[in-house]
Design brief:
The complex is a heterodimer. Chain A is mainly beta. Chain A contains no helices and eleven strands. In chain A, the strands form three sheets. In chain A, strands 2, 5, 6, 9, 10 and 11 form a six-stranded mixed β-sheet that branches. A three-stranded antiparallel β-sheet of chain A has the order 3-8-7, with no helix packed on it. Chain A is globular. In chain B, strand 5 and strand 6 form a beta hairpin. In chain B, 35% of the residues are buried. Classes of the chains: A mainly beta, B mainly beta.
Chain lengths: 110, 116
Amino acid sequence: AQRVTQPEKLLSVFKGAPVELKCNYSYSGSPELFWYVQYSRQRLQLLLRHISRESIKGFTADLNKGETSFHLKKPFAQEEDSAMYYCALTRGSTLGRLYFGRGTQLTVWP
Amino acid sequence: DAGVIQSPRHEVTEMGQEVTLRCKPISGHDYLFWYRQTMMRGLELLIYFNNNVPIDDSGMPEDRFSAKMPNASFSTLKIQPSEPRDSAVYFCASSFFVSGGQGELFFGEGSRLTVL
């Protein structure tokens, strides 16, 4: 069965510090991995997906199949990065169903 | 486009009452999802539709929950009778088919349900 684990419920860093939000998954096939973000009083929205290999708002995430991880990283955190971050997985061959982790609340202090 | 529209935004009801949550997906999207968010369990998929047809309802907790999508622009999630443990934020999301992968999910603002 597929599963997404975000080990940290809460994560706090100071502005300008590097930040890494951890995500591990279990799935024997070829998954697609995503990061969704929910800023205060805003809708949950897509931040980035592994197949795009892009950097959004300074965030990057690399799919490591050996470690079954998809950690989200940013070298210099900003206060506006404070939000709830969800890692999500879908089975690559199956459209529709997205499995979410429990989420990590990131707080960036000034 | 106003995005995915959900109503009501907040609902407070008493145990045993019927609750109906509504969703209008983004025009042109052919997938619609209902998620429930709680502190204990995070975001759980309840059910999703493709072209108005329910594809996977394995996440629906029990028979008290039902969902319909009578047309491409409207869906309902009904709880009858409601119980305090149903208190949660219910999200509707829609997406469209993307060749070779999963389309981006566009979420509504959620309906916060409190059952007393």
